């Protein structure tokens, strides 16, 4: 069976990180390795991670992408799973991930949605509908395949080895998950599974400023890839790739 590394970037998230690591400790299928990337915390984040048995590495360059990519670089597992410090995975989260990758060898990346577990009901509802739901709907149209949700996804180790030199891993004000999804090759399959859920905090959406900042990151991420990664060019490139590899695709007649 494949080994699994869980990567969690964290910045001053000691309290919520403790809950997330406790949830990981209760998994029906335990993680083979947990890496917490301390992104310059001034609280007890690193101490909490170490106390829960996680491997702690430091990334001084601030930002989710620099921190997450440092964790992916350090991961030793066959599968790299990703959570945020405030994510609350159910007990079967890793078991679900393992089963899908074993049963479906064609999958390169597996992702699912987040469900808000705290915060103002109105803000959480808007975030669930507009941000989470809107993200998966709109970005699948743009990309031509499901997007990746950074708080809840897993990828094969070889996916990161191929992508690590292409993505904009040093940038702070972009969506790391969207940037990764944009750079995937046509042969790398992303599967969206609505049953693969994790709890996420509504903290980022507690203010309109926070909500707007994340929309701004999405806009910046898409804009910086234009016109090369426009929807029509992506679809044209995928059609060409499918035509060139028609005999290799599942269901092809020998």
Short characterization:
By secondary structure, this protein is an alpha/beta fold. It has nine helices and nine strands. A seven-stranded mixed β-sheet has the order 3-2-1-4-7-5-8, sandwiched between helices. Strands 6-9 form a two-stranded parallel sheet.
Q: Tally of extended strands? A: 9
> Any idea what the CATH superfamily is called?
Spore Coat Polysaccharide Biosynthesis Protein SpsA, Chain A
CATH class: Alpha Beta
| Averaged pLDDT | 91
Helix percent reads 40-55%
Structural class: alpha/beta
CATH topology: Spore Coat Polysaccharide Biosynthesis Protein SpsA, Chain A
CATH architecture: Alpha-Beta Complex
Shape: globular
How widely separated are the two ends?
31 Å
Gyration radius, rounded = 18 Å
Number of domains: 1
Strand order, sheet with most strands: 3-2-1-4-7-5-8
Strand content: 15-25%
Unreliable runs, pLDDT <50, ≥5 residues?
A: none
Order of helices and strands: EHEHEHEHEEHEHHEEHH
Please count the helical segments. 9
Question: Biggest sheet, in brief?
Answer: 7 strands, mixed
């Amino acid at each position: 069976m494949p080994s699994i590394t869980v990567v969690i970037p964290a910045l001053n998230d000691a309290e919520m990180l403790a809950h997330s690591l406790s949830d990981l400790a209760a998994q029906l299928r335990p993680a083979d390795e947990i890496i917490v990337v301390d992104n310059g915390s001034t609280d007890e984040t690193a101490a909490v991670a170490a106390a829960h048995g996680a491997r702690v590495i430091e990334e001084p360059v601030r930002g989710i992408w620099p921190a997450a990519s440092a964790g992916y670089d350090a991961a030793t597992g066959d599968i790299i799973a990703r959570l945020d410090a405030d994510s609350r995975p159910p007990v079967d989260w890793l078991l679900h991930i393992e089963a899908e990758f074993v049963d479906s060898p064609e999958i390169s990346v597996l992702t699912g949605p987040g469900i808000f577990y705290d915060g103002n009901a109105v803000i959480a509802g808007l975030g669930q509908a507009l941000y989470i739901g809107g993200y998966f709907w709109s970005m699948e149209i743009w990309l031509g395949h499901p997007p990746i949700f950074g708080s809840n996804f897993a990828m094969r180790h070889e996916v990161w080895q191929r992508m690590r030199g292409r993505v904009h891993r040093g940038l702070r004000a972009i969506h790391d998950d969207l940037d990764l999804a944009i750079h995937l090759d046509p042969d790398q399959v992303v599967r969206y599974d609505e049953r693969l859920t994790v709890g996420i905090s509504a903290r980022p959406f507690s203010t309109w400023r926070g909500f707007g900042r994340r929309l701004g990151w999405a806009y910046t991420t898409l804009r910086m890839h234009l016109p090369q990664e426009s929807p029509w060019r992506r679809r044209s490139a995928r059609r060409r790739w499918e035509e060139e590899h028609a005999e290799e695709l599942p269901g092809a007649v020998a």
